[in-house]
């Protein structure tokens, strides 16, 4: 099964930018639909962005549309989330997730990386 490891989180001021990376191992990331989720303190985990296996179909949650961009480099076995114009409400732990071809939900998860946006 695929193993996922996120990196790139940190502390940034409002209006700043970060790029998160999700490195896959054990299995090629090209076999999976990939997504980013986030969970803020006291809130449920929520979908942020998703990308299909070929990278030509993207979808985003409304709060991040126009600010975040999901991308993938199957040759590097890595998925990215570029985040611009960050807001304090973007503060959360961000998780990378993978969904197998015949799975109905995302069934593989990374450990998460903390993103904190100060006002």
What do these coordinates show?
With 119 residues, this protein is mainly β. 0% of the residues lie in helices and 51% in strands. It contains no helices and eleven strands. It has strands at 3-7, 10-13, 18-25, 33-39, 46-51, 58-60, 68-73, 78-83, 92-99, 108-109, 113-118. The strands form two sheets. Strands 2, 4, 5, 6, 9, 10 and 11 form a seven-stranded mixed sheet that branches. A four-stranded antiparallel sheet has the order 1-3-8-7, with no helix packed on it. A hairpin with a 6-residue loop joins strand 4 and strand 5 (46-51). The radius of gyration is 13 Å and the shape is globular. The model has no long low-confidence stretch (mean pLDDT 96).
Write the topology of this structure.
Layout: E1 3-7, E2 10-13, E3 18-25, E4 33-39, E5 46-51, E6 58-60, E7 68-73, E8 78-83, E9 92-99, E10 108-109, E11 113-118
Parallel strand pairs: 2-11
Antiparallel strand pairs: 1-3, 3-8, 4-5, 4-9, 5-6, 7-8, 9-10, 9-11
